[in-house]
Design brief:
CATH superfamily of the largest domain: Rhodopsin 7-helix transmembrane proteins
CATH class of the largest domain: Mainly Alpha
Largest sheet: none
Strand content: under 5%
Radius of gyration: 28 Å
CATH topology of the largest domain: Rhopdopsin 7-helix transmembrane proteins
Distance between the termini: 80 Å
Order of helices and strands: HHHHHHHHHHHHHHHH
Number of strands: 0
Shape: elongated
Length: 385
């Protein structure tokens, strides 16, 4: 059983190291994000390396076990911060590591320091005695360390979800179509990590209570397999769709236009110019329209355009553009010219690129579905004739 577990661990470790180097050398997509993800893979691989090579259940390097006792254990306190910074690097423009970010590594260094002081700095005889007897350090300390780690990791997973939620709200000020950039895939992976590590914690607790090693090993294999799949999904998504790494400025940088020089008269003038341009040129028919593109075409500075939409119209850019698209779809539904056009054809023609988004936004705006609205319009036309 231990042999199977060790072979699986070595396979996962080799894959993580291989993919880590691949990401470091990868020039596509977001290079900072790739490097952070590579660091996560390296940390996980080195942490897991202790299991097949140096734990007490294997015959490998048994004579060196005293020198390598839990030496990579502290690396798991980097899992949470690295996943968090990976998320941040995808949601903030021009993200760079700063000195203030180093405090996130504090639990890693504290754990490593405790391990060094309580074990590795001791004499050979003391270390051997610790390993061969049930002591506070090898039992209660390890259990406490487990619980501290899981709490630490879950806090960072929650922080990742909060960051993604803020990002998804923020991009509505810049983009009219969100399907390819809202990081739903990353949110799903973070939630899956939450569940997987929750199962792993449950496995540890059950093992402490029952001491059933076979069950513990099978559950550990399952957890490791899930981690492997999730890590591969992050790599796959990041490299297959590099445009997913489009980033916007943080909401915190806007500060609600407190320092904006835009006067009331300027707001009114830009507002009229915006409405006139949108209704005449219909830029919303471009499914990939962004705030920057509309700013260039309407000849309105991008910051002023955002402020006018937010303050004068009391909307975000996403809602502003998609309301025009819905109105255009309603016009087509009512026109005999488009009688033979399907709803799918019309939704793409008016600028939507997702059926679910169109149906959701249409129902939110009109209180009815596109098919029901069209049916109602046709019944009115029949009654009138």
């Amino acid at each position: 059983m231990f042999l199977i577990f060790n072979v699986i661990c070595l396979f996962f470790i080799s894959q993580f190291i291989l993919f880590g180097f691949f990401l470091v050398l990868q020039r596509k997509g977001n290079r900072i994000s790739n490097k952070i993800l590579a660091a996560f893979l390296f940390a996980y691989a080195l942490f897991a390396l202790y299991v097949p090579l140096f734990n007490s259940y294997t015959g490998f390097f048994i004579q060196y076990r005293i020198y390598f006792y839990r030496i990579t254990e502290s690396l798991r306190f980097l899992f949470g911060p690295l996943l968090y910074f990976y998320t941040v690097s995808l949601t903030l423009r021009e993200f760079r590591f700063q000195k203030k970010h180093l405090w996130h590594t504090l639990p890693f260094f504290i754990n490593a320091l405790v391990l060094l002081i309580c074990f590795h700095f001791k004499s050979y005889e003391v270390k051997e005695n610790i390993l061969n007897t049930e002591t506070y350090f090898t039992t209660k300390w390890l259990y406490l360390n487990f619980y501290v780690f899981y709490t630490h990791f879950f806090i960072y997973l929650i922080a990742c979800l909060i960051k993604i939620k803020q990002y998804q709200k923020n991009i509505k000020n810049y983009f009219s179509s969100l399907e390819k950039i809202k990081l739903t895939w990353l949110r799903t992976i973070i939630i899956a990590y939450f569940i997987a590590w929750g199962i792993d914690l449950f496995n540890v607790v059950i093992n402490i209570i029952t001491l059933k090693m076979n069950t513990f090993l099978w559950m550990s294999i399952f957890s490791a397999s899930v981690m492997f799949v999730l890590a591969n999904l992050m790599i796959f998504k990041g490299l297959q769709y590099p445009h997913l790494f489009i980033k916007t400025q943080s909401n915190s940088n806007q500060k609600k236009y407190k320092k904006s020089p835009l006067t009331k008269d300027m707001k009114t003038r830009y507002h009229h110019r915006l409405i006139e341009y949108v209704e005449k040129e219909k830029p919303y028919l471009n499914y990939n329209l962004t705030l920057g593109e509309l700013s260039n075409k309407a000849k309105i500075p991008v910051n002023y355009l955002s402020q006018v939409i937010n303050e004068v119209l009391n909307k975000n850019f996403y809602t502003f553009i998609n309301e025009y698209r819905v109105n255009e779809a309603k016009r087509m539904f009512a026109s005999p010219k488009y009688t033979n056009r399907s709803i799918m054809e019309i939704l793409y023609e008016v600028g939507f690129n997702s059926k679910s988004t169109f149906y959701s936004f249409f129902q939110k705006t009109t209180g009815t579905t596109p098919s029901e609205y069209r049916k109602k319009i046709n019944q009115q036309d029949t009654t009138e004739h």
